[in-house]
Amino acid sequence: MPLVSRHLLGPGPTNPYPEATAGLAAPLLGHLDPGFLRVMDETCAMLREVWQTDNARTLPLSATGSAGMEAAFVNTVGEGDVVVVAVNGLFGERMCEVARRCGAEVVRVEHEWGQPVDVERVAAAHPAPTVVAIVHAETSTGVRSDVAALGRLKGEALLLVDAVTSIGGIELRADEWGVDIGYAGTQKCLGVPPGLAPFTISDRAFARRVETPRSWYLDLGLLGGYVGGTTGGARTYHHTAPTAMVASLHGGLRRILAEGLDAVWARHERAGRRLQEGLQELGLELFAAEGHRLPELTTVRVPDGVDAAAVRGELLTRYGIEIGAGAGRYADTVWRIGLMGPNADDDSVALVLAALRDVLRR
Ligand SMILES: *Cc1c(COP(=O)(O)O)cnc(C)c1O
């Protein structure tokens, strides 16, 4: 296999923090080894910090962000329950499909792609939903939505939040904002390879969960017996925890908390703003609505007459830079540039701007 290294400046995965890479190479432990259980406990404690929550049930699920989405719905939505979903991009769309498969009556609240969620319209969409779902950072469009505002309007409904691209990148305060169920991924701003889904659920939501969810693997009631924190010590085997991945997440989280959550958010903010200014100086037009742009994921319109895929190919072969195509029907008209985790820095901004300028000139 050729050994290549890439600047991963797309919608994820990003290049990992060195501490996350080191975690992968540490001596492997068994999933019931006391040493590993300590790593798991510390990981859950650090996850509470990055989620900004006190929820006892905060843990890394053993699969990618999409499994977090599945777990969120399958544990809280039963046959005939009403689920209101804010749809302003690909991941909102996917939530509708996952909820539908759980037997939900799905109320979609449509938005134009590139626009933030209109939380008042979402809150007014149904008088008494079981769950209201929103994507905090829509990676498909580069837009941030106001989760805190929806939290104030949610009423009796459970607030379910996709924080895959926001966690470890932009301000996220699960408890303060009234998030009942949240899921995330490791390969975006947490700067850890793909493979785990940080998950959190409030006591209120856990008490209202589906008793026997249709997924055995993602049944939070069963998982609690292994991950601990809720059963007072005894750890029973449920599935083999991916110990190397958990060690990697542990390394990434330690790095983030050592830098400080506020400092990490500020670093992403600064890098994203510089990139967006630089792209506009190159004469390019940004896609996401102004005032709602994510710093960690920038969407930019492909200029008329330019072959979007050819430019991405040149960036990869000449510079070793991966950027993303647009999502869905924007595949040929939008590029997505990520500055996540360790790549949220001046060097990455300078590199991608210089490379893009060069490739566009050819
Ligand atoms: C990447 C992403 C997902 C899916 O995560 P996977 O790790 O690809 O399964 C879900 N939601 C959002 C907002 C994402 O960016």
UniProtKB/TrEMBL annotation:
Pfam families: Aminotran_5. Its cofactor is pyridoxal 5'-phosphate. One of its GO terms (molecular function) is alanine-glyoxylate transaminase activity. GO terms for biological process: glycine biosynthetic process, by transamination of glyoxylate. Keywords: Aminotransferase, Pyridoxal phosphate, Transferase. It comes from the Bacteria. PANTHER family: ALANINE--GLYOXYLATE AMINOTRANSFERASE (PTHR21152:SF40), AMINOTRANSFERASE CLASS V (PTHR21152). This is Alanine-glyoxylate aminotransferase apoenzyme.
